[in-house]
Write a structure and sequence with these properties.
Strand order of the largest sheet: 9-7-5-2-10-1-11-15-19-20
Number of helices: 12
Structural class: alpha/beta
Radius of gyration: 22 Å
Oligomer: single chain
Bound molecules: inosinic acid
Number of strands: 20
CATH architecture of the largest domain: 3-Layer(aba) Sandwich
CATH superfamily of the largest domain: Adenylosuccinate Synthetase, subunit A, domain 1
CATH topology of the largest domain: Adenylosuccinate Synthetase, Chain A, domain 1
Mean pLDDT: 96
CATH class of the largest domain: Alpha Beta
C-alpha cells in the first residue's frame, strides 16, 4: 500500500500536475484535499493540453478513481463544466469521479461577497474571484454553510436557503448599494438542477478512501496551491483559505496522515506568485529585465485568472521552511529549462532583517515584507536543455545548480523537468 502526496513548496503553480501525471501508473486513486476551482492545473498529455481547476488532474488517466475530498469548496457550475470539457475531449467521466458529501458548496452570493470585499480595497488579497474565501468563512460559521450532500434533500435545501439568503442579502446591501440580490427559491431550483447531474458522483469519500486503504489500494494526494498559501502556515493574510500544505490531508480527505508513505515537494527552478503579498526575491526589473524574461519564457500567466505572475529568483529560505513543514521526503525541480538563457542565476540562501541575518522564514507577512534576500550566484549554462533525458545530458552548470539546491534544502532531488511534455523529465535517483 502506498500513500503518496504531491505538494507545492512555493506560492502555487509549481507544475505539480506533471508530477501527478507521472505517478498515476503506480496508484489507483487520486485525491484532492483542499481548495476549489481556484487551482490552475495545466497538463500536457499526448500532445493535448488540459486545463483543470477543480477536478484532480489524475482523472486524465483512465484507470484512476478521482476523489474530490471533504476539504474542498465546490462550485457545481465549474464541476459540470469541467466534466463536460473532459467528455468533449474524449475522457470518460462516470463512476471514476466522486465528490464528498461533506465538501462545501459555493453559491453565487459567495462570488458577490468576494467581489465587494476585494474591489478597490487597500486590504485586497488579490484573490481568484471564485468565491473560495467566503465559502470557507460560511463553513466555519456553521450557520451559513451548505454541504454537497444537502443537494440530495430538496425540501431541506430549500429550507436552508430560505434561512440563509435573506441574511446574505442584508449583509451584501449593507456593504454596498450596488450589491446583487439573490432569491432563495431561484437558487434552490438552479442547484437542484445541478444535483440531478451530480447525484451519481456524491459519496462519503472519507469512508471510501479508508476502505480503499484496507483493500491495499495506492492513494495519490494532489495538493492545490502551494504550502506558502496555507491559511495557517503560509504568508498570512496573503494566503488562500484552506490548508494547502500537507497539513490539510487528514482533515481534507479523512485519511489519517500516519498513512502517508512518500511526500514529494515540488518547486520551480525559480519563484512565482500571483496575487498580492510579500515576495523577497521578486525581480521587478522592468519590461526587459530578468523577471520579465522568466515570465515570458515560462509562460507565467495565471491559469485561472489570466493575470501575469510575479517572477523572481529561487527562494530557498522559503522552500526549506515549507519542506520542513510538509515532512517532505524528496524534491522535484520543474521548469529548469526556463533559466537556460541567463548568464548567471541567483539562489536566496538567507534573509537580512533589521540588520540581522537569518535563515528562518518569518511567520508573518509584514515581517517577510521587510526581509532582504541574501544571494549566492551561480553561472548559467546558456544552452538549450529541453532534450536532456538523463543527469549526464545536463551541462555542468545546470547540474551544479540542481546539486546546490539539494544541498541547501538537505533533501534529495528525485526529478528535474526540462519541458512540459511527459518525456521532458530527468529521473535523478
Ligand atoms: P483565493 O484562493 O482565490 O482566495 O486567493 C487567495 C490567494 O491565493 C491569491 O493570492 C491567489 O492568487 C492565490 N491562489 C489561489 N489559488 C492559486 C493557485 O492555484 N496558484 C497560485 N496562486 C493561487
Amino acid at each position: 500500500m502506498a500513500c503518496t502526496c504531491v505538494v507545492g513548496l512555493q506560492w502555487g503553480d509549481e507544475a505539480k500536475g506533471k508530477i501527478v501525471d507521472l505517478l498515476t501508473a503506480d496508484h489507483h486513486i487520486v485525491v484532492r484535499y483542499n481548495g476549489g476551482a481556484n487551482a490552475g492545473h495545466t497538463i500536457v498529455k499526448n500532445g493535448k493540453t488540459y486545463k483543470l481547476s477543480l477536478l484532480p488532474t489524475g482523472i486524465l488517466t483512465p484507470h484512476m478513481q478521482a476523489v474530490i475530498g471533504n476539504g474542498l469548496v465546490v462550485n457545481p457550475v465549474r464541476f459540470l463544466e469541467e466534466v463536460t470539457n473532459l467528455r468533449d475531449a474524449g475522457i470518460a467521466v462516470g463512476a471514476n469521479l466522486v465528490v464528498s458529501d461533506h465538501a462545501h458548496l459555493i453559491f453565487p452570493y459567495h462570488m458577490e461577497e468576494e467581489r465587494l470585499t476585494e474591489q478597490g480595497a487597500a486590504s485586497a488579497i488579490g484573490t481568484t474571484g471564485r468565491g473560495i474565501g467566503p465559502c470557507y468563512q460560511d463553513k466555519v460559521s456553521r450557520s451559513n454553510g451548505i454541504r454537497v450532500g444537502e443537494l440530495l434533500h430538496p425540501e431541506h435545501l430549500r429550507e436552508r436557503l430560505h434561512a440563509i439568503v435573506p441574511r446574505k442579502n442584508q449583509a451584501l446591501a449593507a456593504f454596498s448599494a450596488d450589491a446583487k440580490r439573490f432569491d432563495a427559491d431561484a437558487l434552490c431550483d438552479e442547484y437542484l438542477g445541478y444535483a440531478a447531474t451530480m447525484r451519481p458522483h456524491i459519496q462519503d469519500t472519507g469512508r471510501l478512501l479508508r476502505q480503499a486503504l484496507k483493500a491495499g489500494k495506492n492513494l495519490l494526494f494532489e495538493g492545490a496551491q502551494g504550502s506558502l498559501l496555507d491559511v495557517d502556515h503560509g504568508t498570512y493574510p496573503y494566503v488562500t483559505s484552506s490548508n494547502s500544505s500537507t497539513a490539510g490531508i487528514w482533515s481534507g480527505s479523512g485519511v489519517p496522515a500516519r498513512n502517508l508513505s512518500r511526500i514529494i515537494g515540488v518547486i520551480k527552478a525559480y519563484t512565482s506568485r500571483v496575487g498580492r503579498g510579500p515576495f523577497p526575491t521578486e525581480l521587478d526589473d522592468g519590461p526587459t529585465g530578468i523577471g520579465a524574461t522568466i515570465r515570458k519564457i515560462g509562460r507565467e500567466v495565471g491559469t485561472v485568472t489570466g493575470r501575469p505572475r510575479r517572477c523572481g529568483w529561487l527562494d530557498l529560505v522559503a522552500v526549506r521552511y515549507s519542506a520542513a513543514l510538509g515532512g517532505v521526503d524528496e524534491v522535484t525541480i520543474m521548469l529548469l529549462d526556463v533559466l537556460s538563457t541567463l548568464d548567471e542565476i541567483k539562489i536566496c540562501t538567507a534573509y537580512e532583517i533589521d540588520a540581522q541575518r537569518t535563515t528562518d522564514f518569518p511567520g508573518d507577512a509584514f515581517l517577510l515584507d521587510r526581509c532582504k534576500p541574501i544571494y549566492e550566484t551561480l553561472p548559467g549554462w546558456k544552452q538549450d536543455i529541453s532534450a536532456a533525458r538523463t543527469p549526464s545530458d545536463l551541462p555542468a552548470a545546470a547540474r551544479r545548480y540542481v546539486d546546490r539546491i539539494a544541498a541547501l534544502v538537505e533533501l534529495p532531488v528525485s526529478i528535474v523537468s526540462v519541458g512540459p511534455d511527459r518525456e521532458q523529465t530527468i529521473p535523478m535517483m
